[in-house]
Amino acid sequence: MIEKCPVCAKFQIGEAPKPEMPHEFPTSPWVKVAIDFFYFNGKNYVEVVDYYSKFIEVQIISSLEATVVIPAVKSIFARHGIPLELISDGGPPFNS
Question: Which Gene3D superfamilies match (predicted)?
């Protein structure tokens, strides 16, 4: 019915967002972490969040290139340990 409604067709929004994937909650800190990037006040940042404690580690990076990101992430892992699982949104910076 909606497909045949001209008003609905005119204002139809594209594909609905994909549902979030459920994650198991870790039983201790730094087992599962999430990683993402953001841009603020003219600077790029890499952010790593621990799923267990919600602890956030943020580091300024000069670009989103792998040659810059990898040492920054290694530095974070050197301080807290290497997690068993690293979750990302699969955005463009993670494709290289």
Answer: Ribonuclease H-like superfamily/Ribonuclease H
Asked if 69 and 94 count as a contact pair (C-beta separation under 8 A), the reply is no
Contact 88, 94 (CB under 8 A): yes
Reported pTM: 0.72
Adjacent-strand bridge partners of 43? 40
Per-residue pLDDT tens over the stretch 25-46:
899 999 999 999 999 999 999 9
Domain ranges of the chain: 23-88
- Alpha helix locations (H) across 20-65? none
94 burial (CB, 10 Å; 0-12 / 13-18 / 19+) is: middle
